[in-house]
Amino acid sequence: MPAGKWLAVARVAKLFGREGELSLTLSDTFPDIYPLSEPLFVEIDGLAVPLFFEHFNRRGKNGATVRFADIDTQRRASELIGHELYLSDSPLADPDDEEEADEDEIYLEDLVGYEALLGSGHRGIIEEFIDSDNPLFRLSVDGQEALIPAVDAFIAEIDTDAHTLTFDLPEGLLELYLS
To answer: In what order do the strands lie in the sheet with 40-44?
Structure first.
């Protein structure tokens, strides 16, 4: 990076979508509370290029999916794959001034082991969260394996006290695995 102090906080891992979305691997140095109005920087041709967030979704402790402003195609996004992302030495906003992180926030991989309530009297156990371009839950249901897309549209309720996840699945999806 150019002169000045820089802190490596992430690496661009892969594409995550069709409109410039990327999957990041976050370093332990990535702040727990980060003001998304502040850019990350990438070194291109010896210059520190700022990347401003349009979208940031943390995925577990060491992952995130992002979309940066002005990176709106797979081609442009693919140019960043493998690059380190940095914070500048400029002070970040005081975490005490930021809203506290939602203590009830739960990540999809935290749901492994939860009981899955699937409707029609079917119950199962979430055996695995598969983090991929199309994230999935691998369930054990009535002795059968079922793969359910891990999308908000299919999740009706998460009860962290009872360790249950209630699904609202499209008709016929579960039957593909149980027939």
So the answer is: 47-51, 40-44, 84-88, 6-15, 22-26, 63-68, 53-58
Distance CA 165, CA 96 (A): 33
- Spatial distance between the Cα atoms of 34 and 21, rounded to a whole number of angstroms: 19
- For the whole prediction, is pTM greater than 0.85? no
Average pLDDT over residues 147-165: 91
Contact residues for 93 (Cβ-Cβ < 8 A; gap 6+): 35, 38
Instruction: Provide CB contacts within 8 A for 68, sequence distance 6+.
Output: 20, 22, 51, 52, 53, 54
83 with 159, same domain: the answer is: no
- Give the contacts of 165 (CB within 8 A, at least 6 positions apart): 111, 114, 115, 116, 117, 126, 155, 157, 158, 159
**Side chain identity, residue 168:** D
The CATH number that applies at residue 49 is 2.40.30.60
Structure tokens at 127: 């055996």
